Amino acid sequence: MGVEKMDMEDTDSTLMEKGNKPPVSRPPNKYETLFQPCLAEIVGTMFFCFVGCVSVIENVPAAGRLQPALVHGLAVAVMVAVMDNISGSHFNPPFTIAIYLCGGMELIMVGPYLACQLIGGVLGAGMAKMMTPADRYFNATGAAFDILKSDTQLSGAIFGEVAMTCLITMVVLLVAVNGKTKTPLAPFLVGCTVIINVLAG
């Protein structure tokens, strides 16, 4: 009797377990896989360009590079943190291309991402123009505009842009894409890299 009772209890528990099936997860719809990430890229790029442009336009030579460096770095850290699980927080065409080449996204999403980033950048610049006085917008004299004194410095500036873009792209790939080095500190590390780049040149 004792053995039969245990068998009955085991049968009942098995039936109960079969009756409590976990809910079947539905596949993501088109809005979640296409429209939502693209909207996140537009919004993230727009606000990053907006605050970045305003920080440069309203910057004064006395503040040096510190103000735009902190604003750009903190802005990108915040936007990466809040948009990461929606679009991956690219906000920059070189990042999108590099992430695709490293297998971090599908080819079908590269075109829409690039288009959304360009749209977001134009919207952000437009917001900066609406916010700042016309004379300051068209005659910005902050520290970022005082670096190049002659055409002979142009080649060095271009090299610096390429080198610093490679640096931040490498950081993005290592902290946000590579499975061995991916870390929750990605927003902080990317933001710090932006600050370093701006302060360096």
From TrEMBL:
<dbReference type="InterPro" id="IPR023271">
    <property type="entry name" value="Aquaporin-like"/>
</dbReference>
<feature type="transmembrane region" description="Helical">
    <location>
        <begin position="97"/>
        <end position="123"/>
    </location>
</feature>
<dbReference type="Pfam" id="PF00230">
    <property type="entry name" value="MIP"/>
</dbReference>
<feature type="transmembrane region" description="Helical">
    <location>
        <begin position="183"/>
        <end position="200"/>
    </location>
</feature>
<keyword id="KW-1133">Transmembrane helix</keyword>
<dbReference type="InterPro" id="IPR034294">
    <property type="entry name" value="Aquaporin_transptr"/>
</dbReference>
<feature type="transmembrane region" description="Helical">
    <location>
        <begin position="34"/>
        <end position="57"/>
    </location>
</feature>
<keyword id="KW-0812">Transmembrane</keyword>
<keyword id="KW-0472">Membrane</keyword>
<dbReference type="GO" id="GO:0015250">
    <property type="term" value="F:water channel activity"/>
</dbReference>
<keyword id="KW-0813">Transport</keyword>
<dbReference type="InterPro" id="IPR023277">
    <property type="entry name" value="Aquaporin_8"/>
</dbReference>
<feature type="transmembrane region" description="Helical">
    <location>
        <begin position="158"/>
        <end position="177"/>
    </location>
</feature>
<dbReference type="InterPro" id="IPR000425">
    <property type="entry name" value="MIP"/>
</dbReference>
<dbReference type="GO" id="GO:0005886">
    <property type="term" value="C:plasma membrane"/>
</dbReference>
<protein>
    <submittedName>
        <fullName>Aquaporin-8</fullName>
    </submittedName>
</protein>
<feature type="transmembrane region" description="Helical">
    <location>
        <begin position="69"/>
        <end position="91"/>
    </location>
</feature>
<feature type="region of interest" description="Disordered">
    <location>
        <begin position="1"/>
        <end position="27"/>
    </location>
</feature>
<comment type="similarity">
    <text>Belongs to the MIP/aquaporin (TC 1.A.8) family.</text>
</comment>
